Amino acid sequence: MTSKRNILIVDDEHSMRDFLESSLTSRFTVFSASNGRDGFKILKKEKIDLVLSDVQMPGGDGLEMLGNINSSLDYKPTVVMMTAFGTIEGAVEATRRGATDYLTKPFGLDQLNHVLNKCQEHEKLVKENQSLRKNITSQKQKNGLLGNNHHMESLRETIAMVADSRGTVLLQGESGTGKEVVAQAIHYSGPRANGPFIRLNCAAIPESLLESELFGYERGAFTGAINPTKGKFELADGGTLLLDEISEMPFAMQAKLLRVLQEKEFMRLGSKYATKADVRIIATTNRNLKEEIKARNFREDLYFRLNVIPIRVVPLRQRKDDIPLLANHFCQVFCAENDKPLMKIESQTMARLSAMDWPGNVRQLQNVIERAVILSQGDELNEDIFGLSDEMEVNRENTNLDSDLTLREMEKQLILRKLTNTSGNRTLAAQELGISVRTLRNKLNIYTDQGVEIPG
């Protein structure tokens, strides 16, 4: 037999307490108090599931009690505020502070039961989301590397082998394949797990600021340098520094980074003294660095320094059997984040998701699932809510290239097509291509020298 849930009634009107107690005794074990302070004493002694409280009461009002619940109670009961029409603003304020609902006096038994049923549904949803978040946390503790495909099994084995070493790791793979997740897995699987994990996106920092971001600066090193500031190397001391999109680092900065990697020390801007930091370096790139070396965009000596432990992360199209697992995982994540009941992906829709090539890889799949969860009003996700026709069109656009072209010519064709589709908007084109605007500009300069007409 299911035990009754506990409800606390807090109201200074004796007649209201009697009405509520007699109405709810069959459903709840009822506790009551005449003011907020006495009500909070009961909350500290008893495990109360639901609170029905008036707003304005002598000896401690409902808002005061709600504040104590939020700040001092080690559990969170569902709270419904009751108020007369003239003080409805107080009830609205209570919902802003965390109350689930409110009732306007006078109210009847049907109205009361309707609100209580809504609260029960809310509690069920909260518990379900807490369970989802617990499962998601458990998944993250397993390095966040979801997948049973043999490529993923091999990747996990590689991570286990290299995590305890100090060697520099170069992660290569297309945009959206999860290179940063792999970097985190390496960090948190090894002896540096309790140290910092610091990330620097080399493509996102202007060239003029990159050196100070990496090495820090002293007071007065340049205009605006008011206080000494640590750079990413110092912040990562005892841990790992992830240099994301290393191929986008300016050529002159590459020489300075190489010297730091060789000498194991650096100098803040404006300092006369070298600083040492115990840092493991992990670098990522979505470009072929050997091709970048040939094009004189990347230093060969830096490549050899970084490529101590090379790891390639395969695109999603090479492990399509993992798509259902990933899709269901993302569905759980975004249902929990958006406080929605757990949804299922319709089987035919899952089959179509699994058949797609996903040029944006895991990141594209993740974004599609998030959008579907947010827009869905039901408990099942189907093709209509996913907008799969649009996604398939993106797939065709990115894969329908001439098969007899060289890799460099295919890249050119894709870049020019993307510029045409974005009406010459270089920022948008770079975002959709997964490269920086600087890289796109450099490519277009090469094409211009070749006599190619640039769209837009």
Molecular structure report:
The chain folds into 4 domains: 5-125, Rossmann fold (3-Layer(aba) Sandwich), CATH 3.40.50; 166-312, P-loop containing nucleotide triphosphate hydrolases (Rossmann fold); 316-398, Helicase, Ruva Protein, domain 3, CATH 1.10.8.60; 406-449, Homeodomain-like (Arc Repressor Mutant, subunit A). With 456 residues, it is an alpha/beta fold. The protein is elongated and about 85 Å long. Helix content is 50%, strand content 14%. Residues 136-143 have low confidence and may be disordered. Helix 1 links the parallel strand 1 (5-10) and strand 2.
Looking at CATH, which topology of the largest domain would you report?
Rossmann fold
Specify Rg, calculated over alpha carbons: 29 Å
Shape estimate: elongated
- Classify the beta-strand content into a percent band: 5-15%
Report strand order across the widest sheet: 2-1-3-4-5
Brief descriptors of the model:
456 residues; Rossmann fold; Helicase, Ruva Protein, domain 3; 4 domains; five-stranded parallel β-sheet; elongated
In short:
With 456 residues, the protein is an alpha/beta fold.
Topology of this structure?
Elements: E1 5-10, H1 14-24, E2 28-33, H2 36-45, E3 50-54, H3 62-72, E4 78-84, H4 88-96, E5 101-105, H5 109-141, H6 150-162, E6 169-172, H7 179-189, E7 197-201, H8 207-215, H9 232-235, E8 240-244, H10 251-263, E9 265-267, E10 274-276, E11 280-285, H11 289-294, H12 300-306, E12 309-312, H13 323-337, E13 344-345, H14 347-355, H15 361-375, E14 380-381, H16 383-386, H17 388-399, H18 407-421, H19 426-433, H20 437-449
Parallel strand pairs: 1-2, 1-3, 3-4, 4-5, 6-11, 6-12, 7-8, 8-11, 13-14
Antiparallel strand pairs: 9-10
Helix pairs in contact: 2-3, 5-13, 13-15, 18-19, 19-20
